[in-house]
Design goal:
Chain lengths: 307, 285
């Protein structure tokens, strides 16, 4: 977000005696008063609660399973155990594959709508966005019915001879990824669509004029011109995919659990809140690293654009 | 957070010349739409099924809708979800509109701090905010109940209200406010009589949007709700996990219809006021 500095360009050399505040400045207190309630609320609830999670991650449980605050790193040491490491790596893998598949879906869809949508563009985009505002669980449940062993998708694939009687989608890794893709693909389509709308189509024309085939033009012209949209989409998909636990629960089995399922388990069934907090911090750390990488790239891009 | 996309000097003729019919992209798009709507269609279809099966459709009936309206537990949940959505909408609007105004106009240190705090929910996965809210309530000895769900949902929704309204406020012409003050209005009067009316369509649209988002929210509600009553989303979750009853299809269909109506309303409100732009839902963020 561009913050245009609209303060007057007067050097900050204030007179030694404070000048009487001008009438225009007098009322800026109103803006402060407007800011305060929301900021206090957010700090009191959100920031405080996140600090609580971070603190409890260093705590322990007493013999009754009640959380105790403390200062030890046992929980983090426990996370290094193979069982947890597998789940973390699996979650990372699932989330990354989800990003790639979302890119593969969103590029053609955004391209077709942005360049060939004509006057139906807004309608088509609305038709994509609206179902995503419908209840997440109902959508995921419907998707799990579609993917189920005698659901319409496998029936169709069997009829086409692509799948045989034993092929399953539910209870497998691809099933979980299918759930994540269905859940979050809209977050890839919207930024990509916006980027394609902004793109100068004469670039594609130029690519074609220079005898680039459709594929070459796409990969050497369209993709570079829209890569900021793609990067934003990847972040928007990666964040919720990494923390999701519904997809693994509905589409996967015990061998497909993700870090979100572990967190849920530690807070509900397992009753080990400190370990759950440590897992939550780990999740946050991974996402924070991803976000940082994205911001650095974005800043580099911006710097290049200025040059 | 891009503004409007300017379809600069791209005439249809030029565009057609630039790209030949991208058959592959169109095929993927058609397939995508089919798969996007198939699950929704399945839920709607089987909500009218006369039998209990989830795979074989056997005649239309309304028995699952009747079953829903006779189920006191589900009706309680519906009532609670409506209550929570309403309170969260009102609370987050009150705090969020003020915060957005303050953020645009106050460029001091407090403003940038508030801007930072406001971004936290948008870059934190819901499971983290959910866990954190639950720990906060348990840690301070507040028993989980309808109230805790409301508090958590308000916190989460403030960011949405602020993000939506912030760009709208920034787009307003500050001179109208100054003109009002030149004509003798105090800053507060100018805000109430000039700025807020100009923002009304966006405020209403985000109100509808927040209502729908909170009503459909699952993760945050799941971590912050007490045992009885539970929000509708949480009930649906337990129902899906422990053997599906077809009643869930009926509930799901009603919820789908409700959210679609609300989102369509949120998109239509700015147009009803005869102004361009309200929610930037369609131009991406």
């Amino acid at each position: 977000m561009a913050t245009t500095d609209d303060r007057p360009a007067i050097p900050d050399t204030r007179p030694s005696t404070p000048a009487p505040s001008k009438p225009v400045r007098r009322d800026t207190r109103l803006w402060t008063w407007l800011l305060l309630p929301g900021t206090l609320w957010m700090t009191g609830f959100l920031v405080a609660s996140l600090v609580l999670v971070a603190t409890l991650a260093f705590g322990t449980t007493d013999p009754l399973g009640n959380p105790r605050f403390g200062l030890n790193t046992d929980n983090f040491a426990a996370l290094a155990e193979p069982a947890y490491r597998t789940v973390l790596l699996r979650s990372l893998g699932y989330a990354l594959i989800t990003c790639v598949i979302c890119l593969a879906i969103a590029y053609p869809v955004a391209y077709a709508i942005a360049l060939r949508g004509g006057r139906f563009k807004n309608l088509l985009i609305a038709a994509i966005v609206i179902p995503f505002f419908a209840n997440y669980l109902v959508r995921m449940y419907g998707w799990s019915v579609v993917l189920s062993d005698d659901g319409p998708l496998l029936k169709a694939l069997r009829a086409l001879g692509i799948a045989d009687a034993g092929t399953r989608i539910l209870q497998t890794g691809p099933g979980v990824i299918a759930g994540l893709v269905y859940g979050f693909v809209v977050f890839m389509i919207i930024p990509l669509y916006a980027a394609m709308e902004r793109m100068d189509t004469s670039l594609i024309e130029a690519g074609r004029d220079l005898y680039g085939g459709p594929l070459r033009t796409f990969f050497f012209v369209t993709v570079p011109a829209t890569r900021q949209g793609a990067a934003a989409g990847c972040v928007l998909v990666f964040l919720p995919a990494m923390g999701d636990f519904v997809s693994a629960q509905l589409m996967g089995g015990p061998d497909q659990i993700m870090i979100g399922n572990l967190i849920q388990d530690k807070f509900f069934q397992g009753q080990n809140w400190p370990l759950g907090s440590a897992l939550t911090m780990l999740l946050m750390a991974v996402l924070f690293l991803g976000l940082l990488g994205y911001l650095r790239r974005a800043r580099q891009d911006e710097a290049e654009a200025v040059r | 957070m891009t503004g409007k996309t300017a379809p600069a000097r791209r005439t249809p003729a030029r565009r057609r010349a630039a790209t030949r019919r991208p058959r592959f992209a169109i095929a993927v798009t058609v397939l995508f739409f089919a798969l996007l709507y198939l699950p929704v269609g399945v839920v709607v279809l089987f909500s009218f099924n006369a039998r209990k099966s989830l795979t074989v459709f056997d005649g239309a009936s309304l028995r699952w809708y009747r079953a829903f309206f006779r189920d006191d537990l589900l009706l309680d949940s519906l009532g609670m979800s409506l209550q929570v959505s309403f309170v969260a909408m009102a609370g987050s609007l009150l705090l969020g509109v003020a915060l957005a105004l303050g953020l645009v106009r106050n460029r001091g240190r407090l403003g940038s701090l508030a801007g930072l705090v406001m971004l936290v929910p948008l870059i934190t996965p819901e499971i983290v905010t959910g866990v954190a809210a639950m720990l906060l309530f348990k840690g301070t000895g507040i028993p989980l109940s309808t109230t805790t769900v409301m508090l958590a949902e308000i916190t989460f929704s403030i960011s949405y209200v602020t993000v939506i309204l912030r760009s709208r406020i920034a787009a307003l012409n500050p001179e109208t406010e100054e003109a009002a003050m030149d004509l003798g209005a105090t800053r507060r009067q100018a805000l109430r009589l000039v700025t807020l009316p100009a923002l009304l369509p966006s405020i209403l649209a985000s109100a509808v949007l927040i209502f729908a988002l909170v009503f459909d929210d699952f993760v945050l509600a799941y971590f912050t709700t007490g045992v009885d009553p539970q929000p509708l989303s949480v009930r649906i979750y337990s129902a899906i996990r422990f053997g599906v009853q077809p009643t869930i299809n009926a509930v799901g269909t009603l919820m789908l219809a409700g959210s679609i109506a609300l989102i369509a309303l949120a998109l239509a409100i700015p147009r009803l006021f005869g102004r361009r732009g309200g929610l930037d839902l369609l131009s991406g963020e």
